[in-house]
Structure formats: C-alpha cells, structure tokens
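User: Fold this, then the next.

Assistant: Folding the first:
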Amino acid sequence: MSAIDRIQAQLASHPVVLYMKGTPDFPQCGFSSRVVQVLRACNADYAHINIFEDPEVREALKEYSHWPTYPQLYINGELIGGCDIVIDLFNKGELDNMLASVGSKL
C-alpha cells in the first residue's frame, strides 16, 4: 500500500484526523501542542497520526494536502488547516460546530 493509499484509508476511517508531531500526550512541537489543547477544549474525539513514525506518510501528506507544514487537521477527509487556522476557527466558535456536525464530540 502506498503512502497516499494509507493517508486515504486513515481519513476514511475517522471523521477527524490530526497529523501531528508526536502524540496528544507527548506533542513534539509547540504548534501540535496548541492544536491538541484546542481539540481538548472542544471535547473532540479524534484520531492522531504521529508523522515521525511514518516518514513516507510525512512526505506524501505534503503532496496530498498541498500544505507544507504540520500539524494538519482534517474533518470528513477535508483539510481544515494548521495551527493558526484551527485556533482562529476555535476562537470564532466555528470549530466546535464543525466537530459536532460529524459527531466527534465526547
């Protein structure tokens, strides 16, 4: 299975997916940590993918998303954005609604 196939399978398997550096319990960059904090504040149910564990996915995701940086948050298979966009959506109250619309609230 190619890296793109793995990405597509991950996105198809979960309504909310966060590609990040590290894990929610041990983020390995400040931007990933901030997105995790926002998702926790929203009581979000989400899958996470540690890009350090799969270098092929890490590189392929840049091509797949046309987004060069991490973290990357997807809802219903659609790229929402990185840290700044996620925080902006949270501050506007829109992220909570997006998560609720896909049933990803705990």
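Now the next one, as you asked:
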Amino acid sequence: MTLETDTDPAEAGFDASRLARIDRHFARYVDEGLLPGWQIVVTRGGKLVHVSKYGRRDMAAERPVESGTLWRIFSMTKPVTSVAAMMLFEEGAFELTDPISRWLPEFAAPRVYVKGSALNPVTEPATSPIRVWHLLSHTSGLTYGFHQAHPVDAMYRQAGFEWFAPAGLDLAQCVEKWAQLPLLFQPGSEWNYSVSTDVLGRFVEVVSGQSLDEFFAQRIFGPLGMIDTSFGTDDLDRVASMYTAHPGTRQAVSNSAFGKVGIGKPDYLSGGGGLVSTAADYHRFTQFLLRGGELDGARLLSPRTIRLMTSNHLPGDVDLEEYGRPLFAEVPYDGYGFGLGFAVLKDPVKAKTLSTPGEYSWGGAASTAFWIDPAAGVTGLFFTQLVPSSTHPIRQEMRKLVYQAMVEETRL
C-alpha cells in the first residue's frame, strides 16, 4: 500500500510553499549525515496534504526510502496495545479500577522500594494494588532498565532487562520476572515511563484468551486494513536498517544490536515496543483514532472511549513536569499530561508548541513519532531509524513546520 497526496493543500487550509519547508528542513539532516532517510505524512480532515520521503533506508547498500519501507516503530506499539485493552473494556471484561492481580496473580503482593542499593534494597508492601488504569497511564510504579537513574532500574538491568528482554523468554515469563522486582513508588502516586504497556499486553492475552499477535491481527490490523504491521518481519528487502549517532561527530552510523530487532518473529511479544509497520499502515491507525474509533466501516471503539483515552488522567489534571520523574520519555514534560496510552497536550504556551490543546501523541525509540490534533483535524507522522529518539529535536520541529504552513484555522 502506498500513500500519495490526494488534495490541493489550499483546499485543506495549507500554504503549499510553506509546506515545502518541511522537506527542505529535514533533507538537511540527511545531507549532513545526521539521519539515514525519512518518510513524512501530514493530513487534515482525512485528506493527505503532504506526503514525502528522502534519503536511504540502508546507507551501506544505498537503498532509498520507498513508500512501502518497513520501520521498527518501537513505542508507537503502545497505543495499539492500549486500544486492544480498551476494546476488551468496552466488552465488559474488566473495570479500569480493577486490580491486575485478578488476571495476573504474580502481582498479588507487590513490594515498593524504600531505600538501599540495587544489591541490598529495603522494600515495603504496596499500600494499594496496581490497577488496570495504572498500566495504561504509566503510574504503576514499574520502570525501564535503560533509564539508569535509580537502584530499581539497575535491578531490571541485573535481571537482563535494559533495552531488550533476555533471549528465550516469552511475554508471560518477562511479566513474572518484573513482578518479582520492587516497584519504584506506590501505585498511582507518580508517573514513570516503563514496561507498564508490556504488562498490559500480557493482560490482554489473559483476558482475551489469545496471544497478543493473534489479537492484534484479528481484532485490529485485519479490520483496519493494516496489512504490513506485525511483530517482526522476514521481508529483509523492505525493512530499514538501524542507526545511532556517533558520539563524536553525531553522524548516523550502523547499530547492529538494534538492527536485529524486528527481524523474524520474536519469542517476546512486546506490547510496549515490538511492532514493525509502514507509514501507510500507521496512517490508517491514526485516522481510525481521529475519526473516533472507526475507519471505512470498521468500528473498534466508541467516540466516548477515544475521548476518555485522550483525556489527562494524571491526578489533579497536572502535567508531567509536576507528576512525572525527570527521566527519558517520548514527549516533553512541560504542558503535557497523560491519558490511557497517549501523551495529551494541556498547555501549548507552557509546552512552547504551535499545536492545539487536546492534541495526543507518542513516539518510538528510533525517532519515529505521530500526533493527532482533533480540534484542527490534523495528523502528523515521521519515520526514520535513529536511536535514541532524544538525539535530535525532530518532533518539536515537525510540529512547528506543519502548523506554520496551516494558514486557515477553520477549514477541514
């Protein structure tokens, strides 16, 4: 499936000459060797306003980015897993306030870090259970090994969890190991980017009685026509190579460790970061969300559920700066809250962005990103393969370049 611009930008309220700034700006990243290549999609009111690609998906082999290039989307998997969980919620399978231990008994008695080192931690019992909404909102107390900011992070790394899972473990086994480690804080008391969505993926498996890949394929990807999205691919001719920034020159150089990710079906089905997809497929996913849970006659969620997911669930309606730990995440903290699977823009002034309150978004470790602006009817997608995503301010720049080109506010 390919994507092509299907409307005059002026009909969608955009200035075509200003849209051209997007490609000129990001082409410089490639020309200066900072990115291998990229693919960009901008829509408004369901129309494809700007579709472009530039550079190479494989620098050594000099293979260009193509319409059907396969990208590792890493944490852009999280919204898919969140949608899966909320589909089951709509069917009456659970309440958002239910303790996850009803389905995942390994979390029946979690303990919380109090003090001490990774080798000799002092813990206490959790005063309340981890609930389903804690997983969806990253307020569970779980963490990531790659944060490298806390003794509990170090305990994850000691258990073999930094960026990836230990070889040979499946999702159920990973979840059991995480449940044996202490929580970073009492459930619901803070926000911390974590393996919460991976645990949510296991929750989906147990509640549905299907493996996560089967649920995704049958209940989400099939109905939405996402024909190229899966946990891993054997299509080596289409998949983009992985890169990282050289610590001295910042030039994009091959990253063989991350390059193994997404090749073949993994043992561990990561609901937090395991999918490979295309721009065309993820465009369909964002349009399904923008349209309130329906696309081309396939309704997966109700509009009311989408609104709940994209509302700020941080207690007191605070932003991540106030409630989150100052660690790596796929979004700035200032002005952004967090919903059920998405960052949610509360205050554009505080966030210093041209976007609109109510915008929701997320990104992936290889610098992929998307956002959806329901008020303006705008979606934006950016794909490349450079880790980590904090290397360049691509996401902020992309929003600025899209919105400076939107010259009519009301036309959809």
